[in-house]
Amino acid sequence: MFDGRLIMEQKERVLASMRKRNFKDIHLIETAAELIERRKRIITESETARAQQNKRSKDMPQIMKSGTPDEKKAIQEELKALSEQVKSFQPKVKAVEEELDQILLAIPNMLADDAPEGGEDNAVEVSAWGEKPVFDFTPKEHDDLAKGLFDPERGAKLSGARFSVLWGKLATLERVLIQFMLDIQTRERGYTEVLPPFMVNRATMTATGQLPKFEEDLFRTNDDLFLIPTAEVPVTNLHRDEILREEDLPRSYCAYTPCFRREAGSYGKDTKGYIRQHQFNKVELVKFTRPEASDAELMKLLLDAEEILRRLGLHYRVVRLAAQDQGFSSAKTFDIEVWLPGQGRYREISSCSSFTDYQARRGNIRFKRAGAKATELCHTLNGSGLAVGRTLIAVVENYQRADGSIAVPEALRPLMGCEVITPA
Prior knowledge:
Blueprint: H1 4-9, H2 11-21, H3 27-66, H4 69-105, E1 124-129, H5 142-145, E2 150-151, H6 152-158, E3 165-166, H7 168-187, E4 192-193, E5 199-200, H8 202-208, E6 219-220, E7 226-227, H9 232-236, E8 243-245, E9 251-260, E10 279-289, H10 294-312, E11 316-320, E12 332-340, E13 345-354, H11 358-363, E14 366-368, E15 376-377, E16 379-387, H12 388-398, E17 406-407, H13 413-416, E18 420-421
Parallel strand pairs: 4-9, 8-14
Antiparallel strand pairs: 1-11, 2-3, 5-7, 6-7, 9-10, 10-16, 11-12, 12-13, 13-16, 14-15, 17-18
Helix pairs in contact: 3-4, 7-12
């Protein structure tokens, strides 16, 4: 959740960051400040009453020993009233804190100071790798190329719109890409593989920022479990309410999971083909680190995600997202966009983000430095390494041939057991 102390100590900086985000509920900053002040006043009043109670409690033995009957009765009634007054403050503090917590959960993370101004159209390209492929024919989109192997009609029959069935070598390609991504990250890049649950509870969703704001985008079971929208959710929560040792940081995890998203409000947008499905596969990279190492670890994570595309020989670019296009919990985000020749455009295939201490505060994820008494909040980072379905699309479109077949990238051939995919 948002740091209430930051609101009280640097309110103008907070307001400037929220304006830069174009945060619609910016009034919540003032509401939070008012609630923090109210809590402070109630606690002060409670402490004053308790001090008076303690003082009169010390006076009571002497009064009960040598005071008049009226004085004895008066001190007893006074102490009873003071006790009730002290008790009355507890529910008041609790009510204010509960209201404040809900407000702080609804405020997004502070942006990095150097976040570019603007929205989706203001992303800044920071690097690129490879070259766009050149064809001596007009390249097709993936759903035209893979007819017979890509089957949204049967997906719709089984589940509804935005579900698909993959057949034969296309199904094999999806599976192989998952293994390829995991092997590189675990065998070469130092990540520990995790296989988490695919359904999580409300506390887990809240810690990473999906709840309460994005509940309408989630699939929920009748017993209040949520199908995960990304492995970021369960993997980040592995260390919820834990204290890590400084010497064990950074911790780097990778996880394959299916992901489930309603995509509420996006109907009619990018629904053609395999681009925006309600269920899709993804390999996720998650890091826990010390605050001072956070930026360097983000750049390492970004390179780890890029490595997959380089091994596959796929042209891509990296862009820094502008303020209004960043995620709710993110302080800084780089998107990797792969080139899709059939569509003639770049498509996001990974978002790599720093959440600073925002998720750690929500999830109470801390670490302790050697020799220190106090604990500190970790910084959390994550990025797709990669979105598997979109990687499949990129392979299909970039490696297509004039006869409609699809060459298998050399790096995948040992796992695929073939050099060419021929759609039916």
